[in-house]
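Problem: given the chain below (367 residues), write out its structure.
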Amino acid sequence: MEHQVLTSLLGAWALAACSAEEAAAVEEHLGACDPCADEALRLREAVGLLQRPESLDLDPALRTRVLEGCLERRPPRIPVPAWATPYDAETARLDALLQDIGDAEWHAPVRLRWYEADGAASRRTTVAGVIAHLLTVDGLVAVALGLADPLGDIAAPSGAPAGRTEAYWRASHYPPTRAVRAPWREQSHGIVRTVSFTGEAGRMPVSYGDFELPLHDAMLDRAFECWVHAEDIAEAVDYPYQPPSARHLHRMIDLAARMLPDVLAARRRAGLASPAARPRLVAAGEPGRSLRLEIEGSGGGEWLIPLDSPGALGSADHEVAHVALDGVEFCRLAAGHVPPADAAAGQLGDREAIRDVLFAAASLSRM
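Solution.
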């Protein structure tokens, strides 16, 4: 080929768009023509700048896609109930993170954060201490299912998550190490296997000490806490970590929205509600004053939160306020990681009702 023709092919060659014969001719010419070789080098560098860098981290949705493909080809004889799949997915994601960290990182400091009596509370521990915390609180579900209690003979001051965790930490002769990963993962596998035999009912009560949740909600609660603490760990060891899938995130948000009326009532009894808030007497099952909670982005939707009574129905006709929040932001508010005053992306209507709901959302958090 003539020099002019070969020069015109340099751009296509740099983009690997030449035919085999053209590429061979260009490369032979570059060995003999210094100006064309310099131009080819510049073009190859320019192509490299145009390409987006690819992350070495796996797509967080890859596991879900692979499992769905496998299950489509060969459905399980005993499937995991839909309400247990978020827990199954979040424990698997956290386990993948733990598999990647070194021995020294298990002792990296982690600060657990939550809201208590309208104030920020925290507790300092380590990555291994966080897994020990998840082990003991997941144990509440394990005990309800008839599985072994991870506390064993350790006497806890109460059945509440904080009491169980503190008892486990105190009973450890040495700070927890990566050895805690095996019993935590074995327990999570055992929980998923056992709930798979319950079918789609999941109404069995799970005690948290001072309150109870039906099994299907307790599994969502455990999935939510697993994700929140996985983010705590990822931040401590500088590891990239993504939120749950939109489908699972929506279920977690729905659980929090359904719990808000009871939390609002408990805050009123404790004298923590806004002074100007005067709940009206609303019969159970009747519509009452409501706040529209609009969750934007991944896992989003809309919920009408009854303000005056847990037994009242949310009603668009009785809407007095509207709050808009990003889905992940709302979850971090419910985890006690975001101050209520800083959480709302948009507010409209009764300011006292908005304040009460935001603080109630933060009150869902615990150690």
